Task: structure prediction
Amino acid sequence: MKPINVGLLGIGTVGGGTFNVLSRNESEITRRAGRPIRISVVADKDLEMARRVTAGKVRLTDDAYAVVSDPEVDIVVELIGGCGIAKELVLKAIEKGKHVVTANKALLAIHGNEIFTAAQKQGVMVAFEAAVAGGIPIIKALREGLSANRIQWIAGIINGTTNFILSEMRDKGLPFATVLKEAQRLGYAEADPTFDIEGVDAAHKLTIMAAIAFGIPMQFDKAYVEGISKLDADDIKYAEQLGYRIKLLGITKRRVDGIELRVHPTLIPTRRLIANVEGAMNAVLVQGDAVGATLYYGKGAGAEPTASAVIADLVDVTRLHTADPEHRVPHLAFQPDAVVDTPILPMAEVETSYYLRLRVADQPGVLADITRILADQGISIDAMIQREPGEGEEQTDIIMLTHLTREKQVDAAIARIEALPVVKRKVIRLRLEELDK
Result:
């Protein structure tokens, strides 16, 4: 049978992995897809590097626009990244009637609504399993495997760099800056790690998962995003003493009045499986009304894990290449005319529990003043540690865990607590999720 011809845009880490896995497992992939899948042309600015990776086995060009316009190319795989030229190329490929496979989470989170509308109009597919959690097939699970369920919430460790840093901080008791340098030395963190450590990368991925889980448009600009760069090793230690671990989680929840969409460091009970995901691994926990909790775990980045997802998309597109567009799986799981613009809740309306650390003067009456302020805001305390001050110390730490409350109530309480003369520093506030229902 005639092969499906693929035009590959970018043959860096993931592109090289895709080329290698597709070559190595060619017969197995053909058996699954029903016809051969062949990379017929590769576009990359660095032709010398592309020649080394492909060993001269495919046609090379430095003109990506020529690839998306090539009548012989059936599927365009976009592995360039970013939202500039990548967006132009994807839209041009769609305009030319070509299917698209992409690993570009930023592009989809920010411009996905426009891209999917264009694809729908042209009757082509845009597949993006590799855009979230590397080799973990979470998009497939949300879009197809869990389609009988009303998804209630998703909580995911979806950035390996930050998970590696938090694991090292906990294991070795080292400060954030020290561990970040080590992560960069080992290649887990980029030279400019901002997107990872400030939670932006995780928010891109969470935006995509929320759209599929709840049948809403991509709304990255409404996500709450908080990273780990200000996280103190002391808080990791105190969380352990209370039976929790701190992870950077992407969380999205269905509420009566809207959708929660947030990324931030989160305390999770140590007994939860997801709390024990260490190093650069990813994990996504999905709660459905029929199935209950399901956990998806694996490598969230790297050449071949991500290539695994890219090629799975190529197989899917190949199988459905000749299918009636009306009978394909919708891009965002729900039929396009059934996508609902449900509001994303502002962070002030989010409901969760909280970890509060206060640096206070070691004197009588301090605790009574603080608990009175919390009670005034309707905030009840679940657990507390009061550290004994060392010899000669005049200040101490009080650590509190609250029951479920609304963020705006905690904001108001913190403002009043910080105004007390006995409180010597800004209150450290982290959110806590039990992830049990």
Remarks:
- The chain has a mean pLDDT of 95.
- The radius of gyration is 24 Å.
